[in-house]
Every structure is written in structure tokens, then in C-alpha cells.
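Exercise 7b. C-alpha cells:
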């Protein structure tokens, strides 16, 4: 299934002159990791831009771009069996496609937000919380990075 069919939200977050900005991305931007990264590169962030995409209350993808560098975190590798965006993340990360018996687990760079205020260990602990939905996890990430209110306004007030 394509991500654009079931996008919960797709946001770009970036700091401009030290102040966080959040912008909505269109569903066309979440077709795959490369398209998302390309869309993020148009934002003028001091440290690049971060894309936060949640799909069907099932999983999320975080993509961070800075110049030509692209870093990716997929919250659940097993989503690649069903969703194009997740499959493109697995391919981008050069991982094997998951098997039916694989357990849900994160894949990618847990430290991609470390320099912004979300250390890898904290992100890993958040991902291990099976009680949280993707939007709740990403809300916590946004809060830790310093744009939680902007994130919540964009996600929860437009829902």
C-alpha cells in the first residue's frame, strides 16, 4: 500500500536562526525516502531539516537531511512488507526485507537526532514502549528537540 493512502501526518522541522519552524509536507512527498529527502532539502535549516512521517497509526519514519547527507530511522522494519515508504527505508538502509516471522523492531540510525537533543539511548527507550502510537512517540521526540508545541499544533489540532 502506498504511504500517501494512509498518511497520518508528514512534517518538516528545521531551525532557522536558532528558532524551530514546522511545515506540513504533502502526501506526494512521502512516496519514498529519496522523494522525502529531496523535499526536505528545500528548507533552510541551520542543521538541515528533519522529516517526521507517521503512517496508518502503524509506524513512523524520521529522515534527516543536511546538504547531501541523508539519515533515516524506521520505527518498525516489518512495515516494509506492507508499505512502500517503509520498504524504501529498508532499501535505503541496505537491509534485507523482513520475513513474516520477524519481530517488529526499529532500523536505521538511532543517533540521527543526538546533536539536537534526543540521544540514541532515549530514542531507543521510546521506541521500545509498545503502549505508544507513532504520533505520541514523535510528539515526545519533538518535545525533547524543542518544538513540541509546534508539532502538537500541527498534528493534533488539524486531526
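Sequence design result:
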Amino acid at each position: 500500500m502506498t504511504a500517501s493512502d494512509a498518511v497520518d501526518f508528514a512534517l518538516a522541522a528545521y531551525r532557522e536562526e536558532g528558532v524551530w519552524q514546522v511545515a506540513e509536507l504533502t502526501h506526494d512527498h512521502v512516496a519514498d525516502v529519496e522523494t522525502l529527502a529531496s523535499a526536505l532539502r528545500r528548507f533552510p535549516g541551520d542543521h538541515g531539516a528533519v522529516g517526521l512521517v507517521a503512517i496508518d497509526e502503524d509506524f513512523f519514519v524520521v529522515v534527516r537531511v543536511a546538504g547531501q547527507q541523508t539519515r533515516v530511522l524506521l520505527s518498525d522494519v516489518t512495515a516494509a512488507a506492507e508499505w512502500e515508504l517503509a520498504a524504501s527505508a529498508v532499501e535505503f538502509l541496505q537491509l534485507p526485507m523482513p520475513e513474516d516471522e520477524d519481530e517488529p523492531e526499529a532500523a536505521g540510525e538511532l543517533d540521527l537526532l543526538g546533536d539536537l537533543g534526543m540521544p540514541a539511548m532515549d530514542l531507543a527507550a521510546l521506541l521500545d514502549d509498545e503502549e505508544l502510537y507513532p504520533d505520541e512517540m514523535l510528539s515526545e521526540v519533538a518535545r525533547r528537540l524543542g518544538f513540541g508545541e509546534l508539532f502538537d499544533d500541527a498534528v493534533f489540532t488539524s486531526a
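Instructor comment: The chain has one domain: 3-156. The chain has a mean pLDDT of 92.
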